[in-house]
């Protein structure tokens, strides 16, 4: 009888919980709180936070190789399938019209990728910290977090640094979700009140033919100049062509809704599975989180600074705030730029203007990943 009671007690969570697991469960609850109470990208934070709670349940092994979360992780993230399907869905939901209406905004999307290459050197320098050792491939995979593009970060890490994939995925998606918290202070610090109140002229009308040709031209240019980026850019272009062709609405609607929603649920849970205490509370993971916020901040700042340069060059026609949307967190960063602009001037509607650099940032981060993959990943 006593043995039975002892065995029952030893099989409970109360007996088996470790302090680190309790800490990570609290982190998971915090992410869910931010999603529900603060509405910080609930589509991302609720699955990630819940996955983090499940991953820290003792004994259950739900995030192990044979557990549900482990199977999802191996099936979709390690293979790189989830990021590619997400990119197809993003393409199907994206309107490249604002970018085509003002192609010069591509510069802002490119400038925001500066954080990627600054962080590359930062990751290498972290080798001076005891207990941390990043190779050039590791540093390249970490650096892509600066693009604020979770699917791209997962895609690159699965090829260059699979052992760091979990930490990179958690960092990338956490900072993507926290865009409304991280970006506004940087935007306000780097711009004046006068700059923030700048109103922009209405964009020109973009024809249907232009919208259909753009994904095809983008794909062919990528194939010719940077084949390594073709998997990501190709799926983005395919999804966008489904949308703009106007003849496959069923496929376009599926990519925009059912498919991307299903993949988002599985991807969020899979990312959350890497919030287990034994994998997360390590020096390397904490170093990646530190580099992630640094990368994201630098990318935001670089976009805003380039926006200020365009503001001066165009004599006040470009609001510098839209430069922050150059990071590829679509459409979160564009919404934040619009919100900060309206705080300065209630009549200042920047959303469509900000979508130009925002979608340029998606292309930019995929191209940056292709560059790193071609250079670092080559034999």
Question: TL;DR?
Answer:
The protein has 379 residues and is an all-alpha fold. Helices cover 72% and strands 0% of the residues. The chain has 21 helices and no strands.
General description of the model:
This protein is an all-alpha fold. The protein has a domain at about 95-260 and about 275-375. The chain is about 70% helix and about 0% strand. It contains 21 helices and no strands. The chain has helices at about 1-10, 15, 20-35, 40-55, 70-75, 80-95, 95-100, 105-110, 115-125, 135-145, 150-160, 165-175, 180-190, 195, 210-225, 230-245, 250-270, 275-280, 285-315, 330-345, 350-375. Helix 9 runs antiparallel to helix 10. The longest helix is centred in the last third of the chain and has 31 residues, at about 285-315. The radius of gyration is 21 Å and the shape is globular. The mean pLDDT is about 90.
């Amino acid at each position: 009888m006593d043995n039975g009671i002892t065995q029952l007690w030893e099989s409970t969570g109360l007996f088996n919980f470790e302090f680190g697991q309790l800490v990570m469960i609290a982190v998971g609850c915090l992410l869910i709180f931010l999603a529900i109470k603060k509405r910080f990208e609930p589509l991302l934070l609720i699955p990630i936070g819940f996955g983090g709670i499940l991953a820290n349940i003792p004994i259950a092994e739900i995030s192990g190789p044979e557990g549900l979360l482990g199977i999802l992780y191996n099936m979709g993230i390690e293979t790189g399938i989830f990021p590619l399907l997400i990119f197809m869905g993003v393409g199907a939901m994206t309107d490249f019209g604002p970018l085509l209406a003002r192609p010069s905004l591509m510069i802002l999307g490119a400038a925001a990728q500066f954080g990627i290459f600054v962080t590359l050197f930062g990751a290498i320098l972290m080798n001076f910290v005891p207990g941390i050792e990043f190779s050039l491939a590791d540093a390249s995979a970490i650096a892509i977090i600066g693009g604020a593009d979770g699917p791209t970060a997962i895609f690159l890490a699965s090829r260059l640094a699979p052992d760091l994939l979990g930490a990179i995925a958690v960092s990338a998606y956490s900072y993507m979700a926290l865009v409304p918290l991280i970006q506004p202070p940087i935007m306000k610090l780097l711009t004046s009140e006068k700059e923030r109140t700048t109103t922009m002229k209405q964009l020109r009308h973009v024809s249907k033919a232009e919208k259909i040709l753009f994904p095809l031209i983008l794909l062919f240019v990528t194939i010719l100049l940077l084949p390594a980026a073709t998997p990501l850019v190709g799926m983005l272009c395919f999804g966008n062509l489904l949308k703009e062709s106007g003849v496959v609405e069923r496929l376009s609607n599926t990519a925009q809704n059912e498919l991307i929603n299903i993949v988002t649920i599985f991807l969020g849970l899979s990312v959350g599975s890497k919030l287990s205490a034994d994998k997360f509370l390590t020096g390397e993971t904490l170093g990646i989180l530190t580099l992630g916020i640094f990368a994201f901040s630098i990318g935001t700042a670089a976009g805003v600074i380039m926006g200020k340069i365009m503001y001066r060059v165009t004599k006040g026609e470009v609001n510098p705030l839209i430069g922050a949307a150059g990071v590829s967190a679509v459409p979160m960063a564009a919404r934040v730029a619009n919100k900060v602009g309206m705080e300065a001037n209630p009549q200042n509607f920047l959303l469509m203007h900000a979508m130009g650099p925002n979608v340029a940032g998606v292309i930019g981060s995929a191209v940056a990943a292709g560059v790193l993959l071609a250079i670092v990943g080559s034999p």
